[in-house]
Amino acid sequence: MAARGDRESFMRIYDHFMPRLCLYLQGVGLPEAAAEDLAQEALLRLWQRASAFDPARSAVSTWLYRIARNLQIDRLRREAGRVQVAMQAVDEEYGDETPSAEDYADGIQLRRCIDALSPVQARLIRMSYFEARSHHEIAAELGMPLGTVKSHLRRAFLRLQGELGGME
Amino acid sequence: MTAAPRHHLDTATLVSHASGALTPEFSAIVATHLSGCAECRRALARAESVGGILIDQQQPAPAGERGERLREAMLQRLERARPAPLPTAPPPDIDPDRLPAPLHPYFGTSYRALKWRWMGPAMHYIRTTGPSGATLLMLKIGPGRRMPVHGHHGSELTQILRGAYDDALGHFAAGDAADLDAETEHQPVTAAGVPCICVSALDAPLRLEGWFARKVQRVFGI
């Protein structure tokens, strides 16, 4: 059982991310109460895995994002009574490929790059991540050819990646 | 799949996968490619870190009474929660008969047990419709065969599982992904040697050129 100090530092993470995860999950279509449940579930997993969590290998935000997204995808598939698609262990997918320490240090720069995207690129990135919209849906909503949606997304991502430099 | 893949997922596809926007059928093909491609796994990790930063950047309203109750509930759950056992990495698939795990829900686990249907000399297929209505199509084409010229009404994402083919876009071997959209029209020709087995997710029917191919399409429903 973790000591009191661990609990306090975990609750600081909780206080920061709980409302943010709820906003994200409501953005991708969950009702408020369901969003709260999944956000708590994601944070509880962070607590349970605290001993294995290495902040030098993966930002807490990335880790929580991945868990919350996978929990949401799982929930959608369960609700629809669909085949249980092999997601591997839901929260440990490709854990060995999490960004390295240098990538983590680049987080601040990545943040600036996101802010510096063109309005169209920023909109498409946000529609992808915060509304989990497919390319087709984005194309239909913005009245934009599918190929244009894809090339904007490609350019936005390559720009984010390129400006980080030295990540390969 | 020993050599590193040379044809990768489209960046736009990886962003969709990272953001949870792909249908389960397309995700299954993406996951099959990722299991053998370190380069795409690194790109995916970066796409996920963008998601993390976007979450971090949100500006939520201050927690109200409801937030306080949730916080209290969380503190109680921490008392009860036991550390989770460390996940163990799945054993590498060394059995050559075993299909990639992401395909199991749709095609089963074994190459040998696949129930191929005939569609022409040295050409076989298995077609299945996934939960979101997209098509998953597995093809086995004998060596040195020319496929009908086809384009796509929607997107086609193909992963080559065995053998190889060439088309105007290049040489595609086991482990490679061909991530194509509606503008692409191609005519794969399978390489000599072993049959080419590939699996595709399609969100719209193929667009075949020529009356014969279209007739075949109607008969076989691909």
Task: Spell out the blueprint of helices and strands.
The complex is a heterodimer of chains A (168) and B (222).
Chain A: H1 4-27, H2 32-48, H3 60-79, H4 101-105, H5 107-115, H6 119-131, H7 135-142, H8 146-164
Chain B: H1 11-18, H2 24-34, H3 38-56, H4 65-80, H5 104-107, E1 117-120, E2 123-129, E3 135-141, E4 150-152, E5 156-162, E6 164-167, E7 170-173, E8 177-180, E9 189-190, E10 196-202, E11 206-208, H6 211-220
Antiparallel strand pairs in B: 1-2, 2-3, 3-10, 4-11, 5-8, 5-10, 6-7, 6-9
Textual characterization of the structure:
- The complex is a heterodimer of chains A (168) and B (222).
- Chain A is mainly α.
- Chain A has two domains: 1-99, Orthogonal Bundle (Rna Polymerase Sigma Factor, Chain: A), CATH 1.10.1740; 106-168, Arc Repressor Mutant, subunit A, CATH 1.10.10.
- Chain A contains eight helices and no strands.
- Chain A has helices spanning 4-27, 32-48, 60-79, 101-105, 107-115, 119-131, 135-142, 146-164.
- In chain A, helix 1 packs antiparallel against helix 2, helix 6 (119-131) crosses helix 8 (146-164) and helix 7 crosses helix 8 (146-164).
- Chain B has a single domain (1-85, 97-222), classed as Sandwich (Jelly Rolls), CATH 2.60.120.
- Chain B has helices at residues 11-18, 24-34, 38-56, 65-80, 104-107, 211-220; strands at 117-120, 123-129, 135-141, 150-152, 156-162, 164-167, 170-173, 177-180, 189-190, 196-202, 206-208.
- In chain B, strand 2 and strand 3 form a beta hairpin.
- Chain B is elongated.
- At the A-B interface, helix 1, helix 2, helix 3, helix 5 and helix 6 of A face helix 1, helix 2, helix 3, helix 4 and helix 5 of B.
